[in-house]
Every structure is written in structure tokens, then in C-alpha cells.
Amino acid sequence: MSVGTECEPYDLASHLPWSRELGITWNWVDKNEFSRWSGTAHPYIATIMDRFKAPFHRDFVLMIDADVIAIDRFDELFENQNELSGVLAHWSPFAQAHQSTWNRLFSEYGLSKTPFQYEHSGWRAMSNDENARKSPFYINTGVVFGSKGIYERLQQPYFEALEFVRGEMDSYFFEQIALTLAVERASIPVRALPLRFNFPNQPEFEIYNPVELADVRLLHFLRTPIVSRERDFVDFSSVSSLIAREDLAGSNEVLRRRLAKIPFSARDIFGTPIPDGTAAGIRHDILGRVVGIFEARDVFNVGANDEIRNGTGESHPDLVTCFDRLIYLSSASAYQAAIDDLTGYGSPLLVSGFDFAPMLPDPATYFHQPLSRSLEEKGYTAIPLGAYEESVVFIALPPAMGAAARDISTTTLRTAVQIVPEPSLLFEAVVSSRAKLGFFPDHLPRCIEYPWISSNLPQRPALRILDAGAGVSVLPFMLAERGHDVTTIDSHSLIRILETKATWNEWGYLDYGLIDPRIRSFNVPYQDTEDNLALDVVVSVSVIEHVPNSVRKAWIRKAYRQLVSGGALLLTVDTVPFSRQLWNFSEGKQVEDPGVHGTVDDLARDLSETGFVVDSVEHRDWLPLTKIGMARFKAHKPL
Ligand SMILES: C[S@@+](CC[C@H](N)C(=O)[O-])C[C@H]1O[C@@H](n2cnc3c(N)ncnc32)[C@H](O)[C@@H]1O
């Protein structure tokens, strides 16, 4: 890919990592060479010409502009090996002075009679001027095909002709005109291709070339009034919006359908800028986050007009996306068929639609049933991630994702979605936990605790965090993923090894570094760890109630000594339902006499007496699907 602009060259492969995997090499045009054309009618000539420079590494070379897309196979191009092939330009660059200018150029360049033998591809579509109907071999260089040998023969004459044309005139078409002269001068055999090999997205061409349109191979979307290459390709969500359009016809519809078939990968998305808080911006942000959490490489986008009957069988993308389609389906049966198709992939589904009848009904949109219910009827769990206009965006998780015995059930997850303040953090915790550990505990309090810790951390980057009694949990991964420096402590004698992952639950000692090298782990009782760690945060999820009162007090003192001034302590504890008693069992055994073990208020007092400022104590008497209540403590060491 040849690129040129006024700036210094930079590493495009690093900037656009997907291009490396696709095998694209970026060729920067020399800055001085590029600048030579600034101020002319076509400042990008040097970039165009860069492609014509030897060496050519393959037997054949197909040059296409960046706004040309392959719609179908183009094998026929290879049939004639010794010709330079292209579709005639749409119209003459010289308008009224068509014949006289060509004649002048030919004669001044020392060529004999001008062969006006090829019909412009825009004859009738663009003009009926009989005078300019035919030209020499003057092609649209958006698509040029030839063998290596042909290009090698062409190179020198072409660059010479270009200099000549520049001396004669200032024209947007410098290089196309020069190619005509060079071909003539070097007696290069040529072939005029049918329009299907360089079909412009211009409705007038469709009227006069219906057969070519029906068999288009290479589409050139150079015209911008209907689909705009400048506007509709700036990022993934603008392409998604283009794919969702229902107003297109002819060549633009051919383009849309082709785009809808491209499985966009995560890499494509990350290379794009984020637009501001419009519907497109919200979709883009959610999509970027979801793709990141799934580490999805294979994303299948279902556009507005597609037949999506392939939602069963072999295809299992990492993620299926479908924005702004369901609300336009007028009949309940079409809506249901779309739901059937989308869920038929068995893949996670990122989908937008109405979850309630819209407050501002639009005659073009329809509400049939809450989208979350439609998804749940298919066994999916719908987790809301955001909303725009009156559509809600759900990530819908298919039923069979976590196969491990301890993995969260659909019932637990659906119940949790109803009660957590930030469902998107729950979604992240569940998906990451399944990916890293093979399960997310089928224990509803965890659905609340990990998101709570994550959203209550101080808002600073690169915190030093210690997770006391980390067991086997997704929390350290979530924290490391946010760029924090994470240490885990657990004293359990059961050492979790990767080979027996299928049997894991949340108890035990896991060396997290085996899975994520950013995390350090130590198999020691927390109360025995060093004092001077200068931590920003100590977190502990459902541990402190499992240790005796005396150990609990030692823990609190330890955390106080380890934290820097201003450092935060975040604790979650189980409580006896409908009471303020701390839960008093550990792995099935009673910890100590209930009178000794203490209450939520005792724990708050221990914190204050140690020197902490207690910022909040939240307590829920009971949590559904459990035998416990839950308290959450947020405290900090004063400055
Ligand atoms: C209920 S599990 C919770 C694990 C994890 N925090 C989670 O979110 O699932 C309690 C964990 O605390 C650990 N633990 C108990 N007493 C401890 C101590 N004194 N020091 C370090 N870890 C301890 C246990 O080994 C166990 O892994």
C-alpha cells in the first residue's frame, strides 16, 4: 500500500496492527517527491506513481485504488497475460477540446496519429457528446492489471510521459493522460476491460450498464453523494451504520451487501478513533469494550437487510453483533425469525432493540416484545450495557458457555443482573472469570462483590493493590487489566494447579502469575506478611468473617501498617441472614462461639479503633438464592 502525505513517515504497521497480520506492507512515498506535486490540481500524484516503481515481486500486478472493493472473483483478468488491462475512463479530461488536445499532446510527444478507438465508459451515462465519445487508450487508473513484464516495460516511459504532461498543463488527470502516452510510446499491448472490472457507484452508469452491474467484480466507490468514502469508513461504527442502511440501491447496495459479509475482527476496531457521545459513539464504545473482554477476533456483524439464515450449523463467531435492525421489523413473525437466527449461532450476541414500548414512537419502528425477554426465551442471559435513543444494547450470553461444574447457572446470573448497580462490570467479571479460571462461582454474592470492589477503587492509575485471601477469583485479573500492580495472598494448603482446573472452586491457593505474569502471589497467612509494603489499596472479598475475631483484629492492624497515608481498605463479608452477625462458618466448620465472633458494628468499630476512617458500611439482610446477607466496608487511612 503506497501512502504519502506532508508529514514525516511513521510506523503504520504498529499504528494499525491488523495490517501486519493481513500481510500489508506500507510504502511511504519520499516526502520531497510527494511535495513536488503540492499546489497542482492533483497533489497525490507521487503516491499513485509509487505503485509503478519496480521491483515487482509477483508475476501479475493488480493496482487498485483504496476506494475499490472486490465484489466477486476476477479470474478472467489472468487470461491475457501480455496486455495492460483497464476500464476506459468515464469521460474525456479535455471536455470540449477533447480531440484537439489529444492530437496536440500526441504530436508534441512525437507520436503519430491519435487512435480514437476506445469508447469512454461514461458514454451516455455522463454525456451524449458524440465528439468526445471515443479516445485513445485512456483508462481509469483505479484498476490497472498487467504482468510483471508489462509493468517493467512501462516504468520508464510512464515517468517520462508524466514529466512531459506536467510541462504542458495542470490537471487532476496528469497520470492517466501520461499513461496513455506511455502506452503508445512503448507500444504496450492493451486490453479495454468491460465495466464490471471497475464499476463506479454512480446511478447513471447502472441505467446504461445493467448487465455489467449484475456481474460486477470490482466496485469503485469514488462518488460520494450517496455512500461517502470520507464519511462512511472513518471507523467501525460508521461502517456498521452504512451496513444497516435500507435506502440504498444499485451499485451502492452491492457495496453494502459486500461489506455486510466481511467478518470484522477486533483488530479493525481498535485501530479506529472513538467518536463522541452520539448513538454511533455509544455503539462504538460498547463494541470496543465487549470485543476486548471476549478477546474476540472473529466478529460477525448482521446488517439491516441481510438474510441471516446462516445462524445455525458450522459458523461460531466469537461474537455476533446486530445493531439497529430489530426495531425496523414490522411484523412479529419477522422479529421472531430474526431472534431465532441471531441466537442460532450459539455465540455471544451484542444486540440493540426496544426493551419497552418507545415513548416517542416513530412510524418506521416497531415494538413487539421486550428484547431481554425474547433473548431469555432462547435460553440466553441478557445483560444491559447501555442505551441510545430508545434502544437498549444487550450482551446476550448463550446458555452453554461455562461447562465447569462450579460455573454460575443461568438462574443465578439472571437474578444478579436484576440487582447489581453496574451490569457491565458483572458481565466483564463473568466472561473474564470463565476465560481465565474456567468458571465464575455459582454464588450470587460474588456477582455483587467484584464489581463493587472494581468501581470503588481510588480513581488513580497504577495503584499498588493487595488482595488478602484471594482464593481463586477473577478479581486480581480485573485489577491487573486496569493497569494496577497486584499482589495476592492466600494461606490455603490446597495448591491449585492448572492441570486440574476443571475441579477448581473459589477456595485454595492459586499462583496467579501462572495465568497472568503481571500478578505476584504468596502462599502465607495474611497476618504474617510484611508491614512496609506502601500499598495504595488492600481488598478482601469474603474472607475476614471466616477467621476468628483475634485474627480479624490482627488483619486490620496489618492492613493499616501496610497502607500509605490516604490508602484505601475495601472489605466484603457474609452475614447471618436478617441479622448483623458476621457469618461464623469456614469450610463447613463453625469458627468460634457466636458471641465472640462479632457483628457488622463490631467490625466497623475495630476499623475505627485501629485508626481507619470508615467511609461507608452497606448491609443487605439477605441475598436471593443464598443463605447469607452481605456487608461492604469502605475505609481509608487518614493523611
Ligand atoms: C471464601 S474464600 C474467598 C476467596 C476469594 N476472595 C473469592 O473472592 O472467591 C476465602 C479464602 O480466604 C483464605 N484465607 C482464610 N484465612 C486466611 C488467612 N489467614 N490468610 C490468608 N488467606 C486466608 C482461604 O484460604 C480462602 O481461599
As a whole number of angstroms, the C-alpha radius of gyration is: 33 Å
Which regions have little confidence, pLDDT < 50, spanning 5+ residues?
269-274, 306-313
Number of domains: 3
Please tell me the overall pLDDT. 91
* Percentage of residues assigned to helices: 25-40%
Kindly report the CATH topology of the largest domain.
Rossmann fold
Biggest pleated sheet = 7 strands, mixed
Termini distance? 57 Å
- The assigned CATH architecture of the largest domain is 3-Layer(aba) Sandwich
Considering the protein shown, what is the CATH homologous superfamily of the largest domain? Vaccinia Virus protein VP39
* Count of DSSP strands: 25
Q: What portion of the residues fall into strands of 2 or more residues? A: 15-25%
Q: What is the 3D shape? A: elongated
Quaternary structure annotation: single chain
What would you call the structural class? alpha/beta
Please work out how many helical segments DSSP would assign: 22
- Give the C-level CATH assignment of the largest domain: Alpha Beta
